[in-house]
Amino acid sequence: DGGITQSPKYLFRKEGQNVTLSCEQNLNHDAMYWYRQDPGQGLRLIYYSQIVNDFQKGDIAEGYSVSREKKESFPLTVTSAQKNPTAFYLCASSISPGQEQFFGPGTRLTVL
Amino acid sequence: DQQVKQNSPSLSVQEGRISILNCDYTNSMFDYFLWYKKYPAEGPTFLISISSIKDKNEDGRFTVFLNKSAKHLSLHIVPSQPGDSAVYFCAASGIGSSNTGKLIFGQGTTLQVKP
After folding, report:
1. Range 56-75 of A in CB contact (< 8 A) with B
2. A43 and B102: CB-CB below 8 Å?
3. What pLDDT score does A2 carry?
4. How far apart are the C-alpha atoms of A61 and A57, rounded to whole Å?
5. pLDDT for B64-109, tens place per residue?
6. How would residue B51 be classed by pLDDT, with cut points 50, 70 and 90?
7. Predicted local confidence at residue A102, as pLDDT
């Protein structure tokens, strides 16, 4: 049963705390991506990784960090430097850069 | 600078009729376009794509049309069904970004299909 999993589905944190969102895929995809979605807006790219041990900043990387130590995992850390962290976060993967991206179910982060 | 625009935030159609969702882009370097469908609190699911070498691609009830001169693409759903009610995003990638796989998304159009 291949796919992308994100956990947890809902996450609450206090302001000033770092939080790490999980993203795992068993599709053997090389490329992975993190997006955030805000109400009334499209998906905005935070970070992406074309291959293990490599990643690049997307359009809104400030206040976020990632790692890609394993092909199947691409965790996203929302740091206290992110000014408006409450959002719906989506992880995606593709077999290679430029191919269709497949999305996980998302994590809704609420910072109180 | 919004490179991919979906100017209609919402669309309502009757079941059985055609739904037409529109998308405009500004970057002439885009050469690959996709449509995704998204239900609330879920991740988007890929629907259909089109390469810039084509002007039409069809998959069942879904057809995407590309007008490169107008920098415009549209998604046609015929016949529309209540289960099609969702948010639809168009996305584009281009020659410069194709090596990274970066997709640029529009803001989305909420489609409501009434029974």
Report:
1. 56, 58
2. no
3. 67
4. 6
5. 999 999 999 999 999 999 999 999 999 998 755 555 668 889 999 9
6. very high
7. 93
Give yes or no for A103 touching B (CB within 8 A).
yes
- Tell me the shortest Cα–Cα distance from A85 to chain B, in angstroms: 17
Whether B107 has its CB under 8 Å from any CB of chain A: the answer is yes
Return the exposure string of A37-52: e unless at least 16 CB atoms fall within 10 Å of the residue's CB, then b. Answer: beeeebbbbbbbbbee
Mean pLDDT by 10 residues, chain A (112 residues): 87 92 95 91 90 93 96 95 92 86 94 88
CA distance A30 to A92: 11
Contact predicate A103/A5, CB 8 Å: no
Q: In this structure, what token pair is assigned to residue B83?
A: 């289960």
Contact: A101, B89; criterion CB under 8 Å: no
Residue A88 in contact with partner chain B when CB distance is under 8 A: yes
In the three-class reduction of DSSP (H, G, I as helix; E, B as strand; rest coil), residue B82 is classed as: helix
- Is residue B88 helix, strand or coil? strand
B90 in Cβ contact with B35 (< 8 Å)? yes
Flag if A40 and B93 touch (Cβ within 8 Å): no
